Amino acid sequence: MSTFTGGSARNPHTGTIYRHTVSIVDTDHDDADTRALAEAIESILLGGDRTLSPNDLAERTGIDADYSRRLWRSMGFPITDDDAITLTDNDLAAMKRVKHALDLGVVSPATMTALARQTGQVFSQLAESEGNELFRVALSAVNDDPDGKDALVRLLADDLVPLIESMHSYVWRRQLAAYVARTVARYERSGTADVDVTVGFADISGYTSLSRHATESDLAGLLELFESVATDAVGAHDGRVVKLIGDAVLFTTAEPTAGVAIAAELLALWPADRPPVRAGLATGTVLRRVGDVFGPTVNIASRLTSLSRPNEVRVDEKTAAALVDRHRLVEQDPQDVRGYDGLRSWTLMSGP
């Protein structure tokens, strides 16, 4: 029998130190090693073994079982058997904090469910991306060095997982602080947070055609480069990346001039030997939900991007009006696009 001695990890909320040990029977079958490694990693991430059922959790916290089940499902975790041993002491501690907040009236049950759903959506994407990398590294270690599993598990427990967890907390706090600053600035300008914003789209022109012929490795490298250049350009001009969608980025700024600066910098920084980038900008009100933005302004920015030629930035009428004294613009013939007949647009020209 062999044993994974996975080191220890501290619960940041309770201070409890968990030590992770998973034993398996030695075998030549790779699946057994992989399963044991997965169990060791799960024990690290969940803070211990699964010892509680959903019914146990409801009984020990005083939260209604139906509401508890709804919370778990809102976060994306299916609860199909209320008596199955699927939960840990960390889950119990988290649910006790929820019960405490509900009892104090800090949040309503509906608000708590909405928060759970939003958090689940965001972290599901993070977990998919980060988990893919962790699992790739873990499988590589298992295949390359069967005797290196103990070291790998200790590395995860003592270094990698705490690093990722602390990064999540750090970035979340910085992003929340930035949101507060943006909201206060909007109030100071207009007395309300519901003011116009500039929405920008940018994508790689011809990406769909390229993807039919390029290798998976080439596409991955191109998308990584695009994400890097796009996020740098948005961050340099106090914008916010709403989301990255494959070969496209959706961003917002408080002012049209900042939106144009982002689009222009993205195009300027994009390597000339790569498929060209194009962008579209529109200004107006948006509906904000779960960190995303919706509404006609977003739709128009998307349509303008599709009208743009490679290495071109197009803007709508409201954006053009705000830029007319600072940038050279050329009005284009109105065009019919999906959802909009005779959409007017202006091309941003480089130079004075």
Automatic annotation (TrEMBL):
SUPFAM superfamilies, A to Z: Nucleotide cyclase
Sequence ranges assigned to domain Guanylate cyclase in this UniProt record: 198-305
Coiled-coil intervals: none
Pfam families hit by this protein: Guanylate_cyc (PF00211)
GO molecular function, one term: adenylate cyclase activity
A GO BP annotation: cyclic nucleotide biosynthetic process
Family: Belongs to the adenylyl cyclase class-3 family.
Matching PANTHER family: ADENYLATE CYCLASE, TERMINAL-DIFFERENTIATION SPECIFIC, ADENYLATE CYCLASE, TERMINAL-DIFFERENTIATION SPECIFIC-RELATED
Name this protein carries in UniProt: Putative adenylate cyclase
Organism of derivation: Gordonia malaquae NBRC 108250
Lineage, top ranks: Bacteria, Bacillati, Actinomycetota, Actinomycetes, Mycobacteriales
